[in-house]
Amino acid sequence: MRLYLLALNPTDSVTEGFLPAAARLGLDVTVLTDHPDAHRATYPDIEILECDVRDFRAVVTRVSTHHRPDALFTNSDHLQTQAALAAAYFGLPGKDWRATLRCKDKAEMRRRLAEAGVDTVWSTELTEPAALDAPYPCVLKPREGVASEDVVLVDTAEDLMTRSKEIFDRRPGTVLVVEEYLPGELYTLETLGDGHTRHVLGGFHTELSPPPYFIEERLTFVPAHPEPVVEQVLAQLDALGVGFGACHTEFVVHEGRARIIEVNYRAIGDQCDLLLARLLEIPLFEHILRTHLGERLAGDLGARRDGAARLEYPCAERPGTLTDAPEATELTVDGVHLTYRPLRAVGERHDLYRTNRDYLGVLRATGTDQPTVDRVTADFLAGLRWEIQP
Hints:
Layout: E1 2-7, H1 12-24, E2 28-33, H2 36-42, E3 47-50, H3 56-64, E4 71-74, H4 80-89, H5 97-104, H6 106-116, E5 123-126, E6 138-142, E7 152-154, H7 157-170, E8 176-180, E9 185-194, E10 198-208, E11 216-222, H8 227-240, E12 244-254, E13 257-264, H9 272-280, H10 284-292, E14 308-312, E15 320-324, E16 329-333, E17 336-342, E18 349-350, E19 361-367, H11 370-382, E20 387-389
Parallel strand pairs: 1-2, 1-4, 2-3
Antiparallel strand pairs: 5-8, 6-7, 6-8, 9-10, 9-12, 10-11, 11-14, 12-13, 14-19, 15-18, 15-20, 16-17, 17-19
Helix pairs in contact: 3-4, 4-5, 5-6
């Protein structure tokens, strides 16, 4: 059976998660990408074909002139609609392209939720710098952005004008969304469905950098959110048409009310999915691929429910060249399994981005007792050093 996987740049989710899972399932894999050299360097034994994957018509043509597809899949935020349209063209299982579009387009998501009567958020779109009469503070962000890129809190109309001009100067032709700031603690909900059965795998409590930016610095696993909170989030996902494959939903809870911030209609990234598979002790990546092969999920995935976990993302605090940094490490301390992976190579020079591109590395910690996980994590990080020279 042949799996076509659409990708932009190589990611840990694909390299360490989906490709090994596809091999375990005995699938023949063809990667379609507009960055073929980067993928060939990362996994030289996988078939890589160059394709303009942002255009679903190019994807259809590339597949039609190659081997017959049995599944067509992507874990990229940017390619969900293209993959959904191409899968529909070939009559393959996949996501509803309308749902993928609603999730990717943050303005359309707000409109859809309001029309369905499940949540209304003040929101508008900008195509040029503007000073609006808005309910400040507001959040300014790209309509189809990811990873907190150019997401910023603005307090006044003048601030909105300044910030929007900065972004438009860097990203001409983009469309920005301005929406009211939603107060509350930030969480995630991780779900997996086959169009008939939907499993809630738990979620995370996310700690952010100080405003005005929204960099995710720390995530703590939440085995089960309160049932009323889960029901509210799932009702909003239903309104968007989300229910097939993996979905990573970010939401805030304030005074018992859960409100979606954004929906990433794919598996959670930044190595959280790798942690989740280990923590729950389920073949998470195989389950996701099986749904795209048309297989039904079991009513009980057999997920372990007594796990505790935490992820930490050490961030660069200034621009410059990384001259010294810890190497990849894997060890167990007091029953806590630690996996540290560098995300920036020594010798690389970077600006300060105020996004997850500032991450220097990621630490994954899993165990069975949250206080112990937290203590071991803090002690381990205290012993690490990064040197950045101007």
